[in-house]
Amino acid sequence: MDATLRIREASAHDAERLAQWAIAMAWETEHKRLDEAVVLAGVEAGLADPAKSRYFIAMREVTVAGRETIGEAVGTLMLTREWSDWRCGDWWWIQSVYVPESHRRQGVFAALYRHVEQLARATDGVVGLRLYVEHGNETAQRTYAALGMRDAGYRLLEQEFGH
């Protein structure tokens, strides 16, 4: 039995799983309870419009007896774009990263990251990858550093508007 990780672009049929993972990630990282209907609508809108976002899913595929391949979704990330006039190009932002606990520390995020890094390097006008991470999430910070990312020296500020 051979197991491999394959990265695929998400499609509309993945919306419910992606929404559930986003809800789980918000709770784990920020102890925020998100509205399921709003998150599902957001994921569906992102999947329907590549200008909004692109989602990728890591699949652990197992070939049994050299014949049948069984795939299990084991993680995700979402990409968005930000125009940089300073660089005359797009930053690709990695967001909505989630790997279920049973699949963590097994190279799932690294595979997702390397996939989008390769896409970014092959896409004209992309100047780099960015993501944000919670100050106290040292495990994630070490993971990102091991992949070559560094602290860009910015603080993230926001003003959220309610519905």
Question: Could you list some keywords that capture this structure?
Answer:
alpha+beta; 163 residues; 5 strands; single chain; 4 helices; Aminopeptidase; five-stranded mixed sheet
Provide structural commentary.
The chain is of the alpha+beta class and 163 residues long. It has a single domain (2-146), classed as Aminopeptidase, CATH 3.40.630. 33% of the residues lie in helices and 32% in strands. It is built from 4 helices and 5 strands, in the order βααβββαβα. A 5-stranded mixed sheet has the order 1-2-3-4-5, with helices on both faces. α1 packs across α2 (36-48). The longest helix is centred in the first third of the chain and has 16 residues, at 15-30. It starts with a strand and ends in a 17-residue tail after the last helix. The mean pLDDT is 92. GO terms for molecular function: acyltransferase activity. Residues 5-163 form the N-acetyltransferase domain. Its EC number is 2.3.1.-.
Structural class: alpha+beta
- Kindly report the average pLDDT value: 92
CATH architecture, by name, is 3-Layer(aba) Sandwich
CATH class: Alpha Beta
**CATH homologous superfamily heading:** Gcn5-related N-acetyltransferase (GNAT)
How many E strands? 5
The value of Rg in angstroms is 17 Å
Tally of individual helices:
4
CATH domain topology: Aminopeptidase
Strand order across the biggest sheet? 1-2-3-4-5
Oligomer: single chain
Give the terminus-to-terminus CA distance: 50 Å
Strand content: 25-35%
User: How would the global form be characterised?
Assistant: globular
Give the ordered list of helices and strands.
EHHEEEHEH
Number of domains: 1
Low-confidence stretches: none
